[in-house]
Each structure stands twice: as structure tokens, then as C-alpha cells.
Amino acid sequence: MTSEKLDSRLRGNDEHLTLIGGGLAGALLAILLARRGWSVDVFERRGDPRVEGYAGGRSINLALAERGLHALRQAGADEAVLQQAVMMRGRFVHPLHGEPGLQRYGRDDSEVIWSINRGELNSVLLDIAESHGARLQFDHALEQVDFIDHVATFHHHGARVVRPFRALVGADGAGSTVRAEIAKVQALGERTDWLDHGYKELEIPPAADGSFRIEPNALHIWPRGHYMCIALPNDERTFTVTLFMPHAGAHPSFATVQTGDDAMALFQREFPDALPLIPALHHDFEANPVGNLATLYLDRWHLGGQAVLLGDAAHAMVPFHGQGMNCAFEDCVALAQHLQDSPTLADAFAAFERERKPNAEAIQQMALENYIEMRDKVDHPEYLLQRQLELELQERHPGRFVPHYSMVTFMRVPYAVALHRSDVQRKLLVNATCGLHSLDSVDWETLDAAVVKQLSPL
Ligand code: FAD
Ligand code: E1W
Fold first, then answer.
1. Whether residue 65 sits in one domain with residue 137
2. Are 307 and 338 in the same domain?
3. Comparing C-alpha atoms, which of 298, 406, 277 is closest to residue 357?
4. Cα 118 to ligand 1 centroid, rounded to whole Å
5. How far apart are CA 74 and CA 337, in angstroms?
6. Of 29, 78, 322, 443, which residue is least crowded by CB atoms under 10 Å?
7. 337-384: per-residue pLDDT in tens?
């Protein structure tokens, strides 16, 4: 389409948006808007994952929880996504010494999370977006935005193409170009806190008979104090293993573990049960890059009614609560709702930011805190006793004392509420179990009274 034709189409239509990024949030928002009759253009830097495959064919998976699943239901995408998902009932902890075992996430199989393939998820969402009339343009990398003439410049197969827009949604991830272009005309108060740890992805292939090599219905964790490995199942019976470790400093770090041989030695000493599961460890370690992790904070998420940011572009977080995508999907539902309810785009963007920013900041904080819990606490007796008490208090005070993990993962209470209530609850749990080795000598009368006094029904 020529830019004049697009221009004349845009002028007559108030309910039009241009989405930058056809990743997870961009594709989902396209569905939610197109289903409500909005005219939606999506520009994605990469090629079409349905044609070209995704991320060089590596199988990368994500944990989908209730917040994300609820958003997928709103988009009519839940069934297609769950068809390809593997259920995870809990974390399966592999201590260096001692017995490995499953710690259930919830009370039963209604409280589980799902491991899904990123490329498959993206493809399903793009198919549905297109079926509702969203126009998808791949191999279009946003380069520049002119907020005066309302045109965006893209890099497309070696050429420069210019497209008019009414308003932009920056769903272009942590390295957002929309964000950088807004910042040229309005200060965003951007701050990036880099984590001094990075990650490396490895693979556990299927067993010789084609089955899963370890318990499939779990998220595996090898906690090692200052670092850890995790593994999530894929529906093709493999696991994607992720090693999280400091970039620099004393052994082990990515500075002291650089080669495939170094990695083999590390796994021999520290992950002896995982080593035989990862036959291509030497190769994978040298072939795959070390990933970086950061938390991104902004003072503002929008430029009047001209542009708004969501998902990682607005609030990238460390991955240790498995909530980045879930939060991005929750953003999409909230933005679509505000667009429907607000008189102007500027009002919608402002209302969206007001609702979501405190909640994004809450999950960013909880995600940072969860790294220490996962790598250093899940195999300690005090931690297990606190989890046991948490479950007991949930039984004694249903709807009032809800475990932290459940509020984040199985419910849709605002993250900021979950953070606050978890803080209150953690103090009660620590106090009540201090110095104890079992729940037998808990002072229930005092504890029950404190719960009722400090926590309102949820
Ligand atoms: P992205 O998924 O990054 O999508 C951005 C899209 O924009 C991409 O398709 C990109 O190609 C495109 N783009 C970028 N720049 C341009 C441009 N200039 N022009 C056009 N298009 C552009 N979250 C969970 O909920 N559960 C998990 O288990 C989980 N595990 C994780 C593990 C790791 C190691 C990491 C790093 C993250 C994990 N996350 C997880 C977080 C999750 O990956 C992100 O929060 C999520 O992908 C954010 O979605 P998004 O659409 O905002 O950004
Ligand atoms: C989940 C990358 C990632 C993804 C996750 C989780 C973790 C640790 C990591 C958090 C969790 C699912 N978590 N697991 N067990 N307790 N907390 O729930 O997604 Cl590292």
C-alpha cells in the first residue's frame, strides 16, 4: 500500500493503532483490539516465525500462569496454546547433597503452571490476530519516529520505508526503539539496573526410547547458593536448561567458566546428576551466548495520545518469578479496556499507566527477591517449615491468608496488593517458626489472632 492510501484510511478512522513489535505482547494486543473492531497494523523486525521458524530453531520455553492464561482466554487463544503446553505441578528440587523431590505449587492439579514454547505461542497468536483482520508486516524494523509529521521509518530488506501513523504502541521489548524515540522528545526518567548475573541455555534431549529423561510435570531447580540451574519441559520431550550465574568474580562465574571443558568440570562437581542428562553440554555451552538480565524503570510510559509503551519495553524485569510475559499479557488486557472506556487516546494511555505502573514495579521487586529464594533457600529446613506453615494458615484462614506464590501465580490480585500482603505474611511466618524444627510447638492462638488482625479477607 502506498503511504498516501494508508494516510487517507487512517484519517477517517479514530479506532486505529500501529503496534511496533509482533512478539508476545504485540501479537496478543493485536487480537484484543482487532476483535473489538479496531484497525490494527503490526510491524515486526524479524521474519514471520510461522514461515521461518523462531530464534534459530532453539527451543525456548516459558512458564504460563493464571494472569497470562486469563489474558489468552480474553483473546480466545487459551485452547490452542494449552494444547501444546506441558503441565508443571511444582518445583522439583535437586540439592547437591540429599534427596531430590517435588514441592507442589498449589493444593491440587487446578493450581499448576504451564511450560510453553515461545515460538509456537507467538505463531498461534499471530494466526489469530490475522484471522481477526490485523495487518502484520514482518521484516520491518522501526528506526525512527517523527512525532510532528506522524510518520515512522522502517528498515525493510535493505530499504527504508516510511509509514504514517495515528498513535504507536511500543511492544518492541526490552531494547525498545519506540522508547528511545519518545525519549528524544520527552524525558522518560529511564533507569536500567543490570543484574550482575547472566544466563546460558542448554538442552536435555529425550531418552533413547523417546520419553522424558526426568519428571516431565515439574520445573526443575538445582539450587547452589549463589547460582543455580533450572529446567522446563518441552512438548517434544526435551527440557530447556538455564544456568544462572554471576558474570564476574570468584568461581564459579562466567569469567571463570568460559569453555566447554570448564563447563564440563563445573557440572561434574556441582551438578553431577544433571551432567549425564546434557550430552551436548560442551557444544551448547560454547555455541550459545551468555544472556544479560536487567530491571528497567521509567517515570512515564506514554507521550500524550501519540505513543504508549507496554510489556518489556515499559518494565523489563529479571525472570525469576516467571512473570514477565504474564505481566505483559495483563498489560494488554488493561490497555485494550482503557482504550474502550476512555474518550481520547491520551486519557486511555494515562489511565493505563496509572493502573499498571505500581503493579509492574511490585512484580519487578518480587522477581528480584525470588532469585535469592530459588538459588539459596528452597533446600533449607527453615524455608520448608515456613512453606508448611503457610499451607496450614491457608487452611485455617481461607481467603485471608493466601500463600505468596499463589497470589502471584494462581490469582489476579494486583501485584502491588500481593507484594504488600506477602510482606505482612512473611513477618508472621518468620516470627512463628523462629527457632522451631516442626509446627508442633506453634502458638496457634496468638498466631491466628495476628492473622485476623493484620490481614483483611482478600
Ligand atoms: P518481546 O517478547 O521481546 O517482543 C518484542 C518484539 O518486538 C520482538 O518480536 C522483536 O523482534 C520486536 N522488535 C524489537 N525491536 C523492534 C523494532 N525496532 N521494530 C520492530 N519490531 C521490533 N516470562 C514469563 O512470563 N514466564 C517465564 O517463564 C519467563 N522466562 C524467562 C526466561 C528468560 C531467560 C528471560 C530472559 C525472560 C523470561 N520471561 C518469562 C520474560 C518474557 O520473555 C518477557 O517478559 C516477554 O517476552 C515480554 O514480551 P514483549 O512482547 O514485551 O517483548
Ligand atoms: C515459576 C525462569 C523462571 C521461570 C519461572 C520461575 C523461575 C524460578 C524461573 C518461579 C518459581 C515459573 N518460577 N518457581 N518456583 N518457585 N518460584 O513459577 O516460571 Cl528461574
1. yes
2. yes
3. 298
4. 9
5. 11
6. 443
7. 999 999 999 999 999 999 999 999 999 999 999 999 999 999 999 999
pLDDT of residue 56: 60
What is the number of the ligand closest to the CA of 88?
A: 2
In this structure, the answer to whether residues 271 and 248 fall within a common structural domain is yes
C-alpha 164/C-alpha 424 separation (Å) is 50
Ligand 1 centroid from CA 364, angstroms: 15
Pick from 341, 368, 395: which residue ends a domain?
Answer: 368
User: Count of domains in the chain?
Assistant: 3
Q: What is the separation, in whole angstroms, between the first and last Cα of the chain?
A: 52
CA distance 356 to 337: 12
Domain identity same for 393 and 409: yes
The answer to whether the CB of 22 is under 6 A from ligand 1 is yes
Give the residue numbers spanning the domain of 447: 380-454
Number of alpha carbons in the 13 Å side-chain half-sphere of residue 175 = 7
Find the DSSP H helices in 132-259: 177-183
What dihedral angle (degrees, nearest 10) is formed by the CA atoms of 141, 147, 150, 153?
A: -20
Residue 131 lies in a domain: yes
Give the cell for residue 261: 571443558
